[in-house]
Hints:
With 226 residues, this protein is α/β, with parallel strands linked by helices.
Amino acid sequence: MTVLVLQARLDSTRLARKCLLPLGGRPLLFRAMEALATVNCDVKALACPDDCVEPFSAMAKEAGFEIVPGPKDDVLVRYCNAIRKFNADRIIRATGDNPFVFSDAAEFLHIEASGLGADYSGYSGLPYGAGVESVNAQSLLRAERDAQSVYERENVCPYLYGHPELFHLHRPLAPVKWQGFDMRVTVDTEEDYNRAEKLFEAIRDFSPKERSSGTVIIEAYRRNIL
């Protein structure tokens, strides 16, 4: 059982309520879910703080995501709640401030990681905000048990890649077609949001599947942003 888990919240500090900011006429969080909709998995879940269930529920249902609530600050517990709820074997981890996540790269990485039996896998070399992580569910449950620092619990996977002696790590350079060392497609600041609006406008006439293609996004970024 593979579960794609997208984490999101409302109380971001640098750009308030960024998940609800409009991007092409829909909330930014919806665009992230839309981009991930074509990833092949058994369940898609939105892991959010308890106080975000009401504002996110209708949007998640429309996008085909099931809500999994949990603690505001302990994001690792939210992921493990999803593991327990769906009896997951593997998790694809994504974040709600990345509306231009590469769904094709996500699926390719996950297939590769699953075949290798990797506990943790993530590409290097992608544009910042374009990637996901593929994680063994039992390894995340171990992290939930053993991780102690606030950083490890807020960021979900650092306990795994911080302990290479305990876990099988797979951190390859992304294929050339998806590389974008000089690109930033996450939304964390007002500048990021302005860039995202410009980028989305450049690809809005494409289908949702095409808008989540790494090659389409990279080409649009090079033409319109750089």
